[in-house]
Amino acid sequence: MTATLRTSNIVIFLSALAEAILLTGCASMGSSNTESLLTAAGFRARTPQTPKQQQIYAALPPYKVERATVKGRVFYVYKDEKAGVAYVGREQEYQRYQQLAIQQQIAQNQIMAAEMQQQAALDWYGGFGFRRIWW
Question: What's the whole-model pTM score?
Answer without folding.
Answer: 0.63
